[in-house]
Every structure is written in C-alpha cells, then in structure tokens.
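Review form for a predicted model. The reviewer records the input and the model, then writes brief findings.
Reviewer: anonymous (R2)
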Amino acid sequence: MRWTEAQAKTIETRDKNILVSAAAGSGKTTVLIERIKRLVLEDRVDIDRFLITTFTNAAAAEMKEKMEKAIHSEMEQEQDPKTIAFLQRQLQLLPQASISTFHTFALGVMRDFFYLTDLQPGFIIGDETQLQIMRRIRRMRCSSGASRKTEMPFGVSCENTAVTEAMRN
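Model under review:
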C-alpha cells in the first residue's frame, strides 16, 4: 500500500507515544493497524503493552481482527521456533489487549478505581430513560424532606454529588 508522508511518519515513528487525529475516512484505522502490526511483528512488542482507543466498536473489532490475521499470516511464513512461539503468545494475549473505544476504556478505569472517587462499587452507566427515572426519584424524595442520608434506588442519595452532577447533564 502507498502511504502519504504523514501516514508513513505515523507508522514508522518509534520510541514515543503518538496521537493520530484526522478526518473521518482518512485512513486512521488502517494506519494504526499497520503501525501496531509493525511494532508487534518487527519490533517484538507484546500486543498487551499498548493502549489503543478508537471511537467505534466496529473500528476496535476491526483492529483486533486484522491483528489476528497478520499474526497468523506471519506464523505461516515463519520457520524460527522462537519467533513462532512469540507469535503464538501474541495470539494468546490478543483477547485481553487494550483495544477498545474511549468509552469502554474510561468505564474500565472507573470500575477499577471507583474507590478513589465518590462512585459506589456497583455503579451503572444509565441510558437516557434510566437517567430520567433517577432524576424524578431524586427530585421527589429530596424535595419531600427525605433525610440527606436516605438511600434510594441505584445508590442515589440527596447528598450524592457525583450522581447529582451526572444527572444535571
């Protein structure tokens, strides 16, 4: 494939983190897949050492699928037992590799580190209907003179500022 100068620079840059930002349909996913493929296959970086985020589940799934195909393709051509073992390890690591949407990554961080915030361990991300119901329950209970410590569904309380802020949006 022929790469533009900017795409080639993105693919070939080493020893630093990069941020790729470009218009829809410009080839970001293809360039990132090529960069990751080369880092894994040529530089021997384990696939689980990357944080790869994108905007859509489809792009994240495409990245994983293309990485798997690239690893299999490399294995078919490889003769060296050590290299084959490395590639097999990459296939084992791929399902746990951090290749996801920004939202999925952020949700994972929130679930792993809820104890550093005002979030409850079993917090949920509500859709718009659930948020409307929570707002109504909170308004009714808190305006009716309920104790500030009164527990409500979904861990909502009259003093829970994290939920209050989330519900204002």
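Findings: The CA atoms of residues 47 and 90 lie 6 Å apart.
Further findings: The helical segments are 5-12, 28-41, 57-77, 81-93, 102-112, 128-143, 161-168.
Recommendation: see findings above.
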